[in-house]
Design goal:
Oligomer: single chain
Mean pLDDT: 76
Number of strands: 4
Distance between the termini: 30 Å
Shape: globular
Largest sheet: 2 strands, parallel
Structural class: mainly alpha
Number of helices: 16
Radius of gyration: 25 Å
Strand order of the largest sheet: 1-4
Low-confidence stretches: 265-288, 304-319, 326-353
Order of helices and strands: HHHHHHHHHEEEEHHHHHHH
Helix content: 40-55%
């Protein structure tokens, strides 16, 4: 595992987090429902973004982030990003944080899979940083912070060889190996399958410095070409584009790492009315209830203790924000509800009123509650970074 993976992971996922927050706060500001609690103005949106950027690119945070260290676990990484999101006046409720984290992971995973060369991972990071800089362009102090952080990133990673950068890329991919969340934007563009796996393209420009596949050449001992043969490459490839700039400011050429929500916001706004009408039509058409739904919900509530779960969820007295207010906005935000996915096989589970079974389930539930109340074991991974963030 590479010891230089964490800075790229946090900065890229932090950039995706800012993309989503910016898009969702804009959507809440533009909504016509003025009765919603906690409406966000344009000034509030800018304040939230500025506070998060100030914390993410602060000198203390970057110094701790740039230290050689092992890659965090999913739990520790989520804790860091959650605290980053909560360094502002905004408090996300658990459901919104779950959706936000899933979107961040899947967006960055897609960029890693389509990264043409290991060195292009730096261009993806630069695209994120450039977009964040544009979000806070009205604050010269924050722009200076971002420029300093970007210089540190380029100074650390530019001298690395392609093999070292490929090792970093493989380390990042191993972190998202079992993550297969369906995202509506990817599903609409036909770049993700209903099972959550991405579709790799077999067309487009080849990586910089590479030849278009489809030709085999033979050379003699003197380096002269003596034979060539063409073969079908299985795709429609073209010559590579020019190499992107690795400077603080420049043309990155590649689009991976840019804000994909900007290109879809205008289209979603134009089709919002027709989408709402379509949703109403589908709801009216599905008047026949699922006979298994009630039994499954009753069984789930009995096994897991639904009332206790709701009480625990409302125990936090902080001010929370729901970024995904409705099914339509949830689709616009990116998490797919799976309505258009093909039907999969359903296993029907029947629960009998067996006293012995109920007693065993009660014992298991009590053990789960006891294990949940136990304090976590001390861990050094990420403790310094989290402790430093508490002081921000």
């Amino acid at each position: 595992m590479s010891l230089r993976t964490l800075p790229l992971l946090v900065l890229n996922m932090g950039g995706e987090m800012l993309y989503i927050l910016d898009q969702r706060l804009r959507a809440q500001h533009e909504t016509d429902d003025k009765t919603q609690r906690g409406g966000w103005s344009e000034d509030d949106r800018k304040r939230v973004l500025n506070d998060i950027v100030r914390s993410m690119f602060s000198k203390a945070f970057m110094e701790e982030l740039m230290k050689p260290q092992d890659l965090y676990s999913q739990r520790a990484l989520r804790c860091v990003l959650t605290r980053l999101a909560h360094t502002s006046i905004m408090r996300l409720n658990p459901a919104s944080m779950d959706r936000l984290y899933d979107l961040m992971m899947m967006a960055f995973k897609y960029q890693l899979l389509l990264c043409p060369r290991p060195r292009d991972l730096l261009l993806i990071t630069c695209n994120h940083v450039d977009a964040v800089r544009d979000m806070v362009k009205d604050s010269p102090c924050l722009i200076n912070q971002i420029n300093d952080a970007q210089r540190q990133i380029l100074e650390m990673y530019t001298p690395l060889s392609d093999g070292e950068l490929q090792f970093i890329r493989q380390t990042l991919l191993s972190l998202f190996r079992d993550v297969h969340v369906r995202v509506s934007i990817f599903l609409k563009e036909k770049i993700q399958n209903p099972d959550g796996r991405f579709v790799l393209p077999t067309s487009g420009p080849v990586p910089h410095g590479s030849d278009v596949p489809g030709l085999i050449r033979w050379f003699n001992s003197r380096g002269r070409e003596v034979r060539r043969r063409e073969f079908p490459s299985g795709g429609c490839y073209c010559s590579s584009l020019r190499e992107g700039s690795f400077d603080v400011a420049g043309d990155r050429v590649m689009r991976l790492g840019t804000n994909m929500y900007c290109t879809t916001s205008s289209e979603d706004a134009r089709t919002s009315d027709s989408s709402k009408n379509t949703c109403k039509t589908k709801q009216q058409a599905s008047v026949d209830p699922n006979p298994l739904a009630k039994e499954e919900l009753n069984l789930l509530a009995k096994l897991m203790g639904g009332m206790e779960v709701w009480n625990l969820a409302s125990a936090d007295g902080g001010v929370k924000v729901n970024l995904f207010l409705s099914e339509q906005e949830e689709d616009d935000g990116g998490i797919s509800s799976g309505g258009d996915a093909p039907a999969f096989g359903v296993i029907n589970i029947q629960a009998t009123q067996d006293h012995q079974v109920n007693t065993e389930l009660t014992r298991i539930a009590e053990e789960l509650l006891v294990q949940q109340d136990q304090p976590e074991l001390p861990s050094n991974k990420g403790d310094d970074l989290l402790a430093m963030m508490d002081e921000l």
